[in-house]
Backbone:
């Protein structure tokens, strides 16, 4: 009985294994897979220089007083003058935004004696009001900064020169990035003695934003008589792409 049973099971084992052989293919054949395709991977960068048409800057009014109420009243009065001056210069309400308002105590610098623990003494309060300004006529940035300093601004931030509509320049930068990547792939293929095939993938690596032009260290408190000299220069918009090409047979 044991021998008969083994003879019965053997064909079943062979039949059960047949589908696996069919999926893998017969010896001497290979199923093509995207991972088996020979490829060349490259990167490209495109740059476009554009003259900015808008400036963004933040200016701050600081006021000290003996009480928090007096400090707030003083900073509110000064900030109102600054905002009024900006509107007289033609800056629209949509381009003015309060970006910071704070009140903080000022403490004495007296060092407590070693034999007595003493909390720092509050000797006054400081209030600040910061306004972020978008200046759509960059030729007037120096005039705007000079006028707000005259009206009471005593702390400045950074100026960022931006392009209000960067889409066309960004598209041109992407085109240049693709051209550079394709050129690199063609060079590699030629050097390797192979033919460049179709594009397998292309990924947009994004763009690099231009760095703001530092202004905080230029001494806003010393600007009294003349408009602030500001050079606009150009912004460089960069785009990066990663491309994978098939090596044609």
Residues:
């Amino acid at each position: 009985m044991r021998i008969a049973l083994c003879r019965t099971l053997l064909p079943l084992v062979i039949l059960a294994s047949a589908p696996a052989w069919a999926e893998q293919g017969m010896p001497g054949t290979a199923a093509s897979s995207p991972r088996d395709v020979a490829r060349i991977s490259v990167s490209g960068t495109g740059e476009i220089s554009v003259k900015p048409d808008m400036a963004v800057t933040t200016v701050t009014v600081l006021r000290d007083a003996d009480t928090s109420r007096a400090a707030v009243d003083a900073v509110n009065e000064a900030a109102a003058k600054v905002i009024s001056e900006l509107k007289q210069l033609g800056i629209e309400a949509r381009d003015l935004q309060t970006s910071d308002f704070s009140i903080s105590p000022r403490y004495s610098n007296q060092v407590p004696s070693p034999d007595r623990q003493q909390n720092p003494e509050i000797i006054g309060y400081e209030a600040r009001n910061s306004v972020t300004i978008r200046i759509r006529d960059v030729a007037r940035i120096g005039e705007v900064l000079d006028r707000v300093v005259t009206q009471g601004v005593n702390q400045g931030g950074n100026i960022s020169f931006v392009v209000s509509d960067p889409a066309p320049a960004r598209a041109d930068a992407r085109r240049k990035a693709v051209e550079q990547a394709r050129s690199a792939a063609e060079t590699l293929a030629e050097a390797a003695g192979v033919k460049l095939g179709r594009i397998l993938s292309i990924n947009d690596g994004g763009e690099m934003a231009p760095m703001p032009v530092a202004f905080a260290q230029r001494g806003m408190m010393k600007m009294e008589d003349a408009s602030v000299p500001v050079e606009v220069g150009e912004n460089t918009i960069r785009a990066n792409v990663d491309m994978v090409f098939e090596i044609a047979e």
